[in-house]
## 1
Amino acid sequence: MTSRAASAEDSGADSEGTVSPGLRIISPARPIDQEGVGTAVRSLLLALGHDPDSEHLARTPERVAAAYVELLTPPEFELTTFANDEDYDELVLARGIPVHSVCEHHMLPFLGTAHVGYLPGQRILGLSKLARVVELFARRPQVQERLTKQVAGWLQTHLQPRGVGVVIEAEHMCMTLRGVRAAGTSTITSTLLGALREDPRSRAEFLALTTAAPAAGPGGRHA
């Protein structure tokens, strides 16, 4: 099967409305000018009254530039889907997906977890891809509200399930390290689409499972 590349905004649906199993997902963001970031960090250190040529700061611009490249560059991945041959019609939920992003207002990190679920239609998704989709949208300057909607909307478009739900809980360093300095405060956002929004029982099941205590144990579909 031949793969093709698509940006995060590409629909990825074939003529019959199902997802192409060979779709390769890439970030639509422009490449980061790592050298330019280093130069900007050097200027920032000077503006803050520090000597970027001192022994302890000499490599700081280089290190900061490399860190931002890592923080803001999501890896490419294959969108692995499988035919729903068993006609599975119950909730599929991945809980506790790590979220690492950068607040676009202050360029400080926000960290937390995402719970992502869907009610399958004709295809089911490799479970690791739920985490990949979160990473795809988290590794860019973001606000949590938009991140939550983007993950849900992307899955709805690409997978075409009967419903999608996304809940993100995160702590924002721009709120804990500056301003009000409310350490330990978390922000929760949610987006529900399709049956998970419209059907009360499906909605209640999803929200109950995202707040239940996690169960330990091996296993799962990771392709």
## 2
Amino acid sequence: MPQIVLPVIPKLTLTAVIDILAVAVLLYQFILMLRGRRAMHVFGGLLALVILYLIAVALHLNLLRSSLAALAPYTAIALIVMFQAEIRGLLTRVGRIRWLGLGGQLERREVVDEIVLAVQQMIEDKTGALIVVEREIGLRTFIESGVALDAVVSRDLLCSIFHHGGQLHDGAVIIQGDRIAAAACFLPLHTHPVTIRKIGTRHRAAIGVTEGTDALAVVLSEERGHISIAWREDLEQDVNIDRLRERLIQHATGQPARPDQAPEPEWRRAQP
């Protein structure tokens, strides 16, 4: 009776699993970048040529196989030229991964620096602004009320959004991580009678968005050019740039505020 020889299946080791996962992650990130781009059609064409080559090998179409094989040495150079923007984007994605938390800390510091630079510029120009920085509790409801941007946080973009006469000047900018999620967002207004007579609409909106969330709101007064910070339903008014930077870093890194930095809100102290 003839013996059936089964193929030897190589043993799946931990190294092999890591190897497979690494390749899968790289391919997934590459496909994410290609999705919705013209390069996706180029990639589809290259994939079709590979399938055609495999068919030629299987059906012994020697002329077609030889023609496609002659193009193979130039494929690597062609890929680099055609996908240079996508390859650069892939390397950027890899660089943004938070290796052991270091990348995340550097990223958050960069965001803080851009916000502070924008605030300095808008103070000089006497430009009003309302910037909300999300933390753990999502602000999706408020983001959907505005104009979606999904743009990298930068001083120039923030100043352009709040420029006098701009289409996005009214409303708030909401920042998620290192991205400006949306602009011209509508926020709930703080309605307690103790404080509404003393502050303007932007300040009321800044307090309102912090009610029930852990977001931090930065308000720039258009008339006086003063900076205010709203957090946990409290409004700290007339702060300087150093204080703003300190609060933003504490908020971005998750450090809790000291007791003297988070006083009880004025409207609560006024209650009997």
## 3
Amino acid sequence: MSREPLVQPTGNRSRPKLSRFQLQVNWGMITQGVLQLAKSFTKALVVLAILGAPFTISIAAQNSQIHAPSVDGQRRERDDPLETMEAEMLAKRAIKEEERQYRENLERARDLCALGTTIVSSFKKKNWLDEGDLKKLEKVEKLAKGIRRAAGGSEDEVEMENPPRDIASAMEMLETLSQSLKANVEKTPKHVISAAVIDKANVLLELIRILRSLPSALPSKA
């Protein structure tokens, strides 16, 4: 019998051995490829960092504005108590000033009424007005203007429907208007513009103007 030649399976064939030079060349190529890949990756990271830097800064700035209170806000919070106290003080001063003006106007009306009564009483005793009475009449005029101004009125000319024809009738009107004006001022609340007070003051001022033009205001000289 003839022997069949032994055939070794292909899977067990020995691989060709590479020389040391070929191994070094292959390893150098691999290392170079890895380095180039790393450089490309690094460049990509740098580009992304540059492109994303403004966005990152913007977000950080917005977060700082949201979470961190501003200097103006802190200053405003610190100043709020002082501003509140100052506003309260100003309000109290305004109230005191209004109260003072109101009391002054009441005193004007009372002084005017008292002067009017004195002038009328003096006239009833003498039937004429002396220089002292005329000076008191000037004070009545100034007080009437002050009352009108405090009530919010202006220098409006008023025509009396029934003006006095003589001093006697003028004295009667002076007494009536003085008392009526005082009563209107006293019953007018604060912060209220009274048309009645303004009208009475204007009528009284017109009466004083007419009274000065009447004859026999002073005694005739011998």
## 4
Amino acid sequence: MKSAAQIGKKATKRVKQASGQPRPLVSKPQAPDALSGGVVDNPKSESPAAVRIVAVDDHPLFRHGLVQLLNSDDWFSVVGEASSAPEALTLVRKLKPDLVIVDLGLKGPGGLELTKSIRAEFPKLPVLVLSMHDEPTYAVRSIRAGANGYVTKQDALGSVIVAVREVMDGRVYLSPSMASEVISNVVLAKREPGTDPTDDLSDRELEILERIGKGEEVKSIAKALHLSPKTIETHRAHIKEKLRLKNAREVARYAVQWMSGRSA
């Protein structure tokens, strides 16, 4: 699996190599810093027909490539960039964009939490989720949280433009590979809600279970999620209770087996 930085560099390269009909000469969008977040001074945003977008991703290189790709389309205008959920909410309140693109794996409050917050405060504002996860579990949870679309970062280069158009036309969008996974795992398998024990876990608990399954320790998880070790231990205790496990060792064993089953 490619890293976010590799995908970002590829996106930047793809935009630079793009060819075709000459585009109107417009000033280059300017952010406070090339790879920083904040309000973007984009001349295209002044056009009534432009789709004004806020991009939220905590990997600067990937976000930079994504922004370049979006701005290469005459109808899209990235007006703000954020690297965290609090920063994103501040920008959304200030800029009132037409669409927000959210990275699922944000540090601190994650992408699912941000999506829920946006949906609660701005019920009609479309949200498109980008994710490194290619499992249907996360796509389904994103849609349930209020997202209008889900694109894996591996598919982002070829799908994000189409995804934005579909979402702005009022349709729910899933990456082609993800759509087939959701259909085969949820619809064709006729899996009822609750048949998977992890369905009872909160979005944060599921994220922590996954990290435990990857072999991460409490302190490492706490640092990655910008939470205290005590908070991680509390979440682990809730996971233990919901999955009816006896102790932390059984939680770790279950997490490893669960991760192995998903990658099989």
